[in-house]
């Protein structure tokens, strides 16, 4: 168990391809931190730099307060679970788990003890003498976890470990992983491109974009107060509705680029006349005729999800798309008009040029 | 070309390539260089002295009717072997690919000659065609063909062609069969739905799709006939009668070891090396590009 | 195939049977001839069925040898062939797998230079540069030795390429996992890469064994000592034995003995062999 500190870390590949730049993250002992972002955002590169599989171009990496930039992966006291599991195909499950321990020179009895314990935890007792190809996807995933657990590392690294599994298994293993984290109390660093996975697992999320950190915070921080338009767009499903437009002289009404306008009772926290992007999550819009932030939606189609209904439509003269999430089963005809209101505390305001949050 | 992850070690990789590089340098680059060098010298029979003669060895070669004849017989030999071995193998592969369940069985019966050394193939056919007691020569006499490869140069050439092709059929068969099996079945079925009969299907679909294999085999067969058949000829006709089966690679040996003409042999080596290099380059060019698709 | 035409099917089988007969007939005749005495093989037509001299012929050949060819027992030649074939095979595999490992898994100055040096050897068979190679071996004092028979034939671009090709298909994550498991380069090679290469090594073993066993010109040149003769080259001494008429029953017996080991290897390990052959040329 250990803290992990990343200080202005950067990675430049040959040919001046910058994969990550100026990354600062401080991870507490026993914390579960998820690095999330679209593919190519640099999250895997950072994980691989932590593991020592990628050299560090700039910056420093501290594990438990010790700088480990130049340490071999085997010397960093970390374990890693790979996306394709990377199990040694010619070794049995037992052999896979034992390999690292044997290389460490652990006594035989200790190796046996740890494997037995990990196998019990992960319900792998019956499979210890099988080869990886005789196992199902979920079982292989568990073996990969087992191989990490027996090392008893200070830090666990996960590189999209669930993305090769089907949706149901993924949900199940997510819960198991969370339970495992609680039991082990170790530091977990977890990389994924799936925002749902990030939200449900993380103590804190590091959201990355184009080699830089967009925002670090708890899942709710990111959901409730996204620091940028990018974060707002990435977190939440269906996506946040964002409208670009120009504020009037009192900063109370927004004239949309697509036509039409939305009015509010109080001035918005932005300079009058500024160009802004206004975001409202689909679940924060409610049917209603009276109130602030009123707008009129023309329904184009609806998605019946059972627990709730997503109504898609357009605003103004039909050029601004908008989605609304309504509770339960709701019927709406295409072409029908649906008046909506939104309370001001659910409004996200971003600078239209930089994308940074204004309110 | 290389792994994303690599090991960091300074001396180790050199240590790992060392054995291969050492053997390559000692037994490959050094002799090749020597061949190139001595092709510009004339050496006396005892190797005591040698004299720089420039291109003379090469000039002499190309003024030597025997050498030019060797070029001709090598070409006839190579093309005949390739044509014979490839066409028979293609026919067998197409047939074997059609019989489904029996493919494996026939394959077993057809691939073993791959393991027969060219020298042995030569000796066995030499025996079959022996003018006085060979069974094939006897049958040929029955249909009125007088066979004697000891005196008839054309017959001697034919003998080594048949023996060389016989041995090579297995190899070609395996590659054609692999090529045929890699053609998606749906293509053949689509053609059948388009009302193409088996013969038309073969020429309009299968054969064009096999062209990369065919081209690859053509080069391999030529290389085989030009170089690997040395032993076949050496163990049987020894180049005769009167040089009729003296293909280029045999002549290199004969000029050097029997004729003791070091410079002349070296010049021939250089010419042959150039030939192989050209063939290899051509092969890589086309195989990379995949003939036809 | 697509349609069902009985006549076509019949024709297909006929073609295949003819092909099998064409390939088997010469060896059949040799096998038959090796079981007859000199008498039966002195006049045409020679018998098409086995004679009764098999035991005498083969025991004489294997243990006694043929006086016309220096009287070296063929059994001994076969042993020499085996040593040479195994030496070449094991040597080639060992040397190539190490070189391929270095080229794929390390980055070091002159890496591509080495790669090309190995690549060009693909092009030149030993027959082409026979005289100078012989010269080099003479200078190194390797004539009439197993070393001289084996070592010059060990460098192999083909095997190196096959291993390189295979290594490139091994997932990167395995190396990474091994590095996290504290395995250094040689331990990774030994514990993981080598076991994973088993099938490739086996397939290559078959192909190289046949290559080694069937060597002809090279043993012919570097051995003048009869106790080092190999069987494939030894047969040449019998065929071209000067004044005497060739003793065909012995020659064919020797031919059988020379071709049986590699043929058995190919047939017994057919699937592995086919896979190795077709893939190594891709």
From TrEMBL, chain A:
PANTHER family: MALTODEXTRIN IMPORT ATP-BINDING PROTEIN MSMX, SN-GLYCEROL-3-PHOSPHATE IMPORT ATP-BINDING PROTEIN UGPC
Protein name: sn-glycerol 3-phosphate transport system ATP-binding protein
Xref: SMART domains: AAA (SM00382)
UniProt cross-references to InterPro entries, sorted A to Z: AAA+_ATPase, ABC_transporter-like_ATP-bd, ABC_transporter-like_CS, ABC_transpr_MalK-like, ABC_transpr_MalK/UgpC-like, Mo/tungstate-bd_C_term_dom, NA-bd_OB-fold, P-loop_NTPase
Gene Ontology process terms (BP): carbohydrate transport; glycerol-3-phosphate transmembrane transport; glycerophosphodiester transmembrane transport
GO MF term (any one): ATP binding
Keyword terms, alphabetized: ATP-binding, Cell inner membrane, Cell membrane, Membrane, Nucleotide-binding, Sugar transport, Translocase, Transport
Any one GO CC term of the record: ATP-binding cassette (ABC) transporter complex, substrate-binding subunit-containing
SUPFAM superfamilies hit by this protein: MOP-like, P-loop containing nucleoside triphosphate hydrolases
Family recorded in the similarity comment: Belongs to the ABC transporter superfamily.
Keyword flag Cell membrane: yes
Positions of the ABC transporter domain: 4-235
Residue runs in coiled coils: none
Source organism of this protein record: Salinihabitans flavidus
UniProtKB/TrEMBL annotation, chain B:
ABC transmembrane type-1 domain: residues covered: 71-283
Its membrane topology: Multi-pass membrane protein
PROSITE patterns, per the entry: ABC_TM1 (PS50928)
Regions crossing the membrane: 12-30, 75-97, 109-128, 156-180, 201-227, 266-287
Keywords on record: Cell inner membrane, Cell membrane, Membrane, Transmembrane, Transmembrane helix, Transport
Assembly information from the UniProt record: The complex is composed of two ATP-binding proteins (UgpC), two transmembrane proteins (UgpA and UgpE) and a solute-binding protein (UgpB).
PANTHER family hit by this protein: BLL4140 PROTEIN (PTHR43227), SN-GLYCEROL-3-PHOSPHATE TRANSPORT SYSTEM PERMEASE PROTEIN UGPA (PTHR43227:SF9)
Protein task: Part of the ABC transporter complex UgpBAEC involved in sn-glycerol-3-phosphate (G3P) import. Probably responsible for the translocation of the substrate across the membrane.
Protein name: sn-glycerol-3-phosphate transport system permease protein UgpA
TrEMBL record, chain C:
Family, per entry: Belongs to the binding-protein-dependent transport system permease family.
Membrane topology: Multi-pass membrane protein
Subunit organization: The complex is composed of two ATP-binding proteins (UgpC), two transmembrane proteins (UgpA and UgpE) and a solute-binding protein (UgpB).
A cellular component annotation (GO) from this entry: plasma membrane
Lineage of the organism: Bacteria, Pseudomonadati, Pseudomonadota, Alphaproteobacteria, Rhodobacterales
InterPro entries xref list: MetI-like, MetI-like_sf
Protein name: sn-glycerol-3-phosphate transport system permease protein UgpE
UniProt subcellular location: Cell inner membrane; Cell membrane
Source superkingdom: Bacteria
């Amino acid at each position: 168990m250990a803290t992990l500190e990343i200080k202005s870390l950067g990675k430049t590949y040959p040919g001046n391809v910058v994969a990550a730049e100026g990354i600062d993250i401080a991870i507490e002992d026993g914390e579960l931190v998820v690095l999330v972002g679209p593919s190519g955002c640099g999250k895997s590169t950072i994980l691989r730099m932590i593991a020592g599989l990628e050299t560090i171009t700039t910056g420093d990496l501290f594990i438990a307060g010790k700088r480990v930039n130049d340490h071999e992966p085997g010397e960093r006291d970390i374990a890693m679970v790979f996306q394709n599991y990377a199990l040694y195909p010619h070794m049995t499950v037992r052999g896979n788990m034992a390999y690292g321990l044997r290389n460490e020179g652990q006594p035989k009895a200790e190796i046996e003890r740890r494997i037995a314990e990990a196998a019990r935890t992960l319900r792998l007792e019956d499979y210890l003498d099988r080869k990886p190809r005789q196992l199902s996807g979920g079982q292989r995933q568990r073996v990969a976890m087992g191989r990490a657990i027996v090392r008893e590392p200070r830090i666990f690294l996960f590189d999209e470990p669930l993305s090769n599994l089907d949706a149901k298994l993924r949900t199940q293993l997510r819960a198991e992983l969370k339970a495992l984290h609680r039991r082990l109390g170790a530091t977990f660093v977890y990389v994924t491109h799936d925002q749902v996975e990030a939200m449900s697992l993380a103590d804190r999320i590091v959201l990355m974009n184009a080699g830089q950190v967009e925002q670090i915070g708890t899942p709710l921080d990111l959901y409730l107060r996204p620091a940028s338009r990018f974060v707002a767009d990435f977190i939440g499903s269906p996506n946040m509705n964002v409208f670009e437009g120009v504020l009037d002289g009192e900063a109370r009404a927004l004239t949309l680029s697509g036509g039409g306008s939305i009015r509010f009772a109080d001035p918005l926290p932005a300079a009058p006349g500024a160009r802004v992007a206004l975001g409202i999550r689909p679940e924060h819009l409610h049917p209603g005729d009276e109130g602030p932030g009123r707008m009129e939606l023309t329904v184009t189609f609806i998605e019946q999800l059972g627990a709730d209904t997503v109504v898609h439509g357009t605003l103004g003269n039909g050029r601004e798309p908008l989605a609304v999430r309504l509770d339960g089963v709701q019927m709406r005809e295409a072409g029908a008009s649906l008046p909506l209101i939104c309370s001001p505390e659910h409004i996200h305001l971003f600078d239209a040029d930089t994308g940074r949050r204004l309110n | 070309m290389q792994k994303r992850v690599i090991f960091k070690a300074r001396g180790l990789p050199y240590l790992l390539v060392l054995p291969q590089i050492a053997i390559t340098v000692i037994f490959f680059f050094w002799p090749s260089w020597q061949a190139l060098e001595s092709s510009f010298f004339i050496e006396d029979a005892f190797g005591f002295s040698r004299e720089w003669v420039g291109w003379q060895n090469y000039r002499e070669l190309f003024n030597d009717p025997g050498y030019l004849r060797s070029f001709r017989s090598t070409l006839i030999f190579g093309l005949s072997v390739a044509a014979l071995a490839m066409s028979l193998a293609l026919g067998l592969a197409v047939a074997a690919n059609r019989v489904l369940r029996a493919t494996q069985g026939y394959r077993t019966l057809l691939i073993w000659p791959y393991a027969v050394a060219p020298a042995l193939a030569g000796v066995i056919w030499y025996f079959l065609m022996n003018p006085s007691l060979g069974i094939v020569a006897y049958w040929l006499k029955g249909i009125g063909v007088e066979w004697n490869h000891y005196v008839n140069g054309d017959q001697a050439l034919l003998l080594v062609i048949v023996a060389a092709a016989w041995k090579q059929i297995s190899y070609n068969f395996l590659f054609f069969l692999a090529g045929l099996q890699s053609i998606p079945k749906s293509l053949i079925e689509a053609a059948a739905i388009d009302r193409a009969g088996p013969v038309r299907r073969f020429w309009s679909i299968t054969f064009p799709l096999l062209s990369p294999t065919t081209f690859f085999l053509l080069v391999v067969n030529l290389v085989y006939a030009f170089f690997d058949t040395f032993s076949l000829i050496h163990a049987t006709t020894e180049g005769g009668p009167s040089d009729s089966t003296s293909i280029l690679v045999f002549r290199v040996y004969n000029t050097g070891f029997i004729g003791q003409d070091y410079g002349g042999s070296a010049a021939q080596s250089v010419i042959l090396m150039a030939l192989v290099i050209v063939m290899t380059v051509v092969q890589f060019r086309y195989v990379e590009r995949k003939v036809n698709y | 195939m697509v349609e069902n035409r009985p006549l076509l099917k019949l024709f297909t089988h006929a073609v295949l049977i003819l092909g099998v007969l064409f390939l088997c007939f010469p060896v059949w005749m040799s096998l038959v001839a090796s079981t007859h005495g000199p008498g039966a093989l002195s006049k045409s037509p020679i018998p098409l069925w086995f004679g009764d001299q098999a035991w005498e012929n083969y025991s004489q050949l294997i243990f006694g040898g043929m006086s016309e060819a220096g009287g070296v027992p063929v059994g001994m030649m076969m042993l020499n062939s085996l040593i040479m074939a195994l030496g070449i095979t094991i040597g080639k595999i060992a040397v190539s797998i190490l070189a391929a490992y270095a080229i794929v898994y390390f980055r070091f100055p002159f890496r591509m230079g080495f790669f090309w040096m190995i690549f060009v050897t693909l092009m030149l068979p030993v027959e082409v540069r026979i005289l100078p190679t012989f010269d080099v071996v003479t200078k190194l004092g390797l004539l009439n030795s197993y070393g001289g028979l084996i070592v010059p034939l060990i460098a192999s671009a083909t095997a190196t390429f096959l291993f390189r090709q295979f290594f490139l298909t091994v997932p990167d994550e395995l190396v990474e996992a091994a590095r996290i498991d504290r395995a250094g380069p040689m331990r990774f090679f030994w514990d993981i890469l080598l076991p994973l290469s088993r099938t490739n090594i086996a397939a290559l073993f078959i192909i190289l064994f046949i290559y080694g066993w069937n060597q002809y010109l090279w043993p012919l040149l570097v051995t003048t000592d009869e106790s080092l003769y190999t069987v494939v080259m030894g047969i040449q001494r019998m065929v071209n034995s000067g004044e005497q008429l060739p003793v065909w029953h012995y020659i064919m017996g020797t031919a059988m003995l020379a071709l049986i080991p590699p043929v058995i290897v190919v047939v017994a390990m057919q699937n592995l062999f086919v896979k190795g052959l077709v893939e190594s040329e891709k």
